[in-house]
């Protein structure tokens, strides 16, 4: 081999079509550097050693024959044989790429990079396969990379090691499993200016939600130090979401943030040579803080959208991306260091919708981040290191501190995966997602609390938090075909409270959210009574004060915690269904439920019958809760004004009298939520007989009605549905109740107001659906599990020959 410059390609001269020349990673870096730096996307400069350099070096060393002998017919399930032959193959490649021609080419290019950026420049040396970063196969993590490499000789050695890594154990297995010929794949090596994220932070960006495949968000993860810890799942990273449509409209707001543990950070070992790194504990003050400011999150989101738009335009269809970012601790700037097509969530083309539901209960052994939305039961196998993998049996639940690409042959046979560390972009999560296996990552204490041989159930079906239960619990999997679903004139909406399920639920056929339950967000994502945050000095319990202190640490004022968490929860639901309407019911706890919140006991009266007591609209302007209601209004205003989610509508629950409605509307206006301003619509729950009787008067104050069939039935029939001895009399089909429904729908229509129903009655009783459709109801809102069934029931009702129109 000669030192021909044909073996060197600078990033500025590369495009995505050059994958056969320099591999997927380098071609993508060239595309980014050459086309997007002018648009403000910051990408480090560098050069690539071509795949031809690799091939020529092996040909001149007569290495191919020897490699064929080692790899042809290899049984990759024989781990001992795999390790032995892979090591010999790597040695062959390492020796073959040590010639003077390659050394000269690398020295010349590295020298040019030094002249541009400084003497003894630190660079990252990264492998790039010619079958890499394809839309259907990522090859992520299969080959080696070397960081913080200084000097001509060290760069040369790192390049040789990268070439040799084409035959790592995991790369061999990956090629076999994905149908790639070992000898049709070549390796290129990229050398690029090092971004010193060891002194700052780094992470991964996806231009969709990795669990549901929802396309309208940018999902960003980050932690302190080099990015390898996130990829390997050694830390629980910070997570951020940004909503694409409103971002493109100029709204610069982070949709939601979750602080991760960030237990350690990977830094370079002092005085050590090439690629020598060490993990050190992250100082507690940094662990408690986000590794990125909101402004930096938004800058990265802008980069991500530019990259996605560019790649989508290149291929002529939407192309979700998987992007690596790094922040330089020296200049404080953010850089994009890799971008590839996302190869898992974006490839799903569902013809059916599958849901999982536990049918039993048990003790939760550990919990962490849910990956996927499935449930699996099996026997635990705790794996400490690679040597333990030989004992693993198909169908077992693999439990480990973290996983690595070397483990993938075994992970493919696992019934479930649980790791003590890691976030939703770590190696274990990526593989589990690709395989369709439920996984719980970042489950602290998993390797000690879960014992080999024990039966467990891994559940990822309840939102963002995944749980591992003791024993094998019964569960149900339901698959409903999406093909052939009829379109209905009546809007079919969903009831939803848990923001963690919003993106997944939004993938169902729907016309928006007919009932978003604020109280679920307050109880599950905040946990503190709002008045305890307004007046922490009045909280008598020392334990409650300590809990409030921990939760609000880092906030300027305790109330800011409530407003931020509530606005993020509501915002995620509104974003998931944007621009469809999302009707948010203001808090509707009973006094006993409010009292159970942290610090709540001292702010709530004791009532014998909370169902008919101090709840809903009666609270909002009352001195006992008005300051808490102001926080609810501040959160809603932030969602609509700052986040730009103007599809959010407000609904007032349990509004007994017209004069009460007037007080509530005035109170909302006082807090910046005036009806009609910025398109704000305010609805009222129609769940008290007086709402029906006085519907003409209520229509003058509200834009729409949502019939709460549960409370309306209780109050019409005088039946407590929670009382077993009289519950048999609770029946929405009672003639008196049907008359109430008729009066509510026709009254709203008479006043040209929207009218819907939020309850399971239409899904459970087709005759009620037919009755409501015949009345001309505008929308029916049911729980997600009932949506598809309700669509069919309503379609049949709309097409019934004897449908009566009112």
UniProtKB/TrEMBL annotation:
The keyword Kinase applies. Keywords: ATP-binding, Kinase, Magnesium, Metal-binding, Nucleotide-binding, Pyruvate, Transferase. InterPro entries: ATP_grasp_subdomain_1, PEP-util_enz_mobile_dom, PEP_synth, PEP_util_AS, PEP_util_C, PEP_util_CS, Phosphohistidine_dom_sf, PPDK_AMP/ATP-bd. One of its GO terms (biological process) is gluconeogenesis. It holds the Pfam family PEP-utilizers_C. It comes from the Bacteria. Residues 20-351 form the Pyruvate phosphate dikinase AMP/ATP-binding domain. Its EC number is 2.7.9.2. Residues 393-463 form the PEP-utilising enzyme mobile domain. Residues 486-796 form the PEP-utilising enzyme C-terminal domain. Pathway: Carbohydrate biosynthesis; gluconeogenesis. One of its GO terms (molecular function) is metal ion binding. Gene3D superfamilies: ATP-grasp fold, A domain, ATP-grasp fold, B domain, Phosphoenolpyruvate-binding domains, Phosphohistidine domain. It catalyses: pyruvate + ATP + H2O = phosphoenolpyruvate + AMP + phosphate + 2 H(+). SUPFAM superfamilies: Glutathione synthetase ATP-binding domain-like, Phosphoenolpyruvate/pyruvate domain, Phosphohistidine domain. The keyword Magnesium applies. Its cofactor is Mg(2+). NCBIfam families: PEP_synth, PRK06464.1. Catalyzes the phosphorylation of pyruvate to phosphoenolpyruvate. Belongs to the PEP-utilizing enzyme family. This is Phosphoenolpyruvate synthase. The gene is ppsA.
